[in-house]
Amino acid sequence: MDFSDRILSWYAQNKRDLPWRKTRDPYNVWLSEIIMQQTRVAQGLPYYLRFIERFPEVADLARASEEEVLKTWQGLGYYSRARNLHATAQRVATDYQGTFPATYKELMDLKGVGPYTAAAIGSICFDLLTPVVDGNVYRVLSRYFGVELPVNSGEGSRYIADLAGQVMSKESPGNYNQALMEFGALQCIPRNPDCLACPLSDSCVALAKKKVSQLPVKLPKKAVRKRYFNYFMPVDPDFQTLLIKRKDKGIWRGLYEFPLLESELELPDEKAEAQILEGVFTQLNEPLKFVKCNPIPLVHKLSHQHLFVTFRILYLGHGLRGGVPITKMQSYPVPIPIANFMETVKNSYF
Ligand code: SF4
């Protein structure tokens, strides 16, 4: 048996029973691939079921409002994926009359669909010979074939991509791609894989050379950026607050948040409170008092940045223009630290 046969045979006995594996419908496969990017199955599965229930067809997703889509996505992070999901559903509904395109080139042209996702959809739904290449694949192929080039270098990633194409199953490309991913997720895991129980152990180069823990080789990552988010939740005498839609290109675009003062370092209370009153948000003048809700910033970790987040409630003596009733604030799509804060303050402060 060659590599691909052995991977397929392992998959037949060990694969997890997941709903998107019971269909070759491109809508379901695409949805699962977008949701599962950078997400564990246990976390992504409820979202997949929620999306399919709420938007059974691509046309249903295309017709939804952006806020409805972001709200359904809330908590998964990487919100640009949700916006791209929506844009692609609209494109498929209009440009392709609701039927996903069947070529790699056309799939790659859809928003939010990169080489990995296009390869997965192409192979699973249309039997295209397009190998998927991601962290799992880098790890399995590096170890099994003993590749010592750094996988996050141009040369290393090209080498693995070529190798992935050579060793893939030509008869069953979709199953093979899923099998390789599953093998990386369950058997050839990043730390301490159970090589004694591995059906590929007799021909694995890393195991023979005692290099399992050293492969794949990776160049050091760039430093994580620290950002300090000071949120002010204004509350007027009618128990209204203010939510502002984020328009920046960076994180959380399109989601709502309380007035924000971002700083490079943690701000002392007086400085933060003075700055917020210095006309940053003119509507918030004449506060009666500030209440700091978390004396120690909570840390929200994203892939390349750590956010140190504090929340203050700011009681106002006057009504807010465009205010949102506190009883309705949780219906808005918001980043997860704000959703958690809303849940806490709803019960503790009002
Ligand atoms: S023997 Fe170990 S390192 Fe090699 S493929 Fe199997 S699990 Fe991975």
UniProtKB/TrEMBL annotation:
HhH-GPD domain: residues covered: 35-186
Alphabetized SUPFAM superfamilies for the sequence: DNA-glycosylase, Nudix
Highest rank taxon of the organism: Bacteria
The keyword Iron is annotated on this UniProt entry: yes
Cofactor section: [4Fe-4S] cluster
4Fe-4S listed as a keyword: yes
Cofactor note: Binds 1 [4Fe-4S] cluster.
Reactions catalysed, as given in the entry: Hydrolyzes free adenine bases from 7,8-dihydro-8-oxoguanine:adenine mismatched double-stranded DNA, leaving an apurinic site
Keywords carried by this UniProt record: 4Fe-4S, DNA damage, DNA repair, Glycosidase, Hydrolase, Iron, Iron-sulfur, Metal-binding
Enzyme Commission numbers on file: 3.2.2.31
Entry similarity comment: Belongs to the Nth/MutY family.
PANTHER family hit by this protein: ADENINE DNA GLYCOSYLASE
Function as written in the Swiss-Prot or TrEMBL entry: Adenine glycosylase active on G-A mispairs. MutY also corrects error-prone DNA synthesis past GO lesions which are due to the oxidatively damaged form of guanine: 7,8-dihydro-8-oxoguanine (8-oxo-dGTP).
Record's protein name: Adenine DNA glycosylase
Organism listed in the record: Robiginitalea aurantiaca
Gene this chain is encoded by: mutY
